[in-house]
Amino acid sequence: MTTMIDEIRDIIDNPDHIRNIAIAAHIDHGKSTLSDNLLAGAGLISEDLAGKQLATDFDPQEQERGITIFSANVSMVHEHEDKKVLINLIDTPGHVDFGGDVTRAFRAVDGALVLACAVDGVMPQTETVLRQALKERIKPILFINKVDRMIKELQLTPEQMMEKFTAIIAEVNKIIKDNAPAEFKEKWLVNVNDGSVAFGSAFKNWAISIPYMKKTETTFKDIIKYTEDDNEAELKKTYHFQKLSWTWLSNISQIQKKRKNTGLKDFGKEIMKANQENL
Question: Is the N or C terminus of the chain more exposed, i.e. has fewer CB atoms within 10 Å?
Answer without folding.
Answer: N
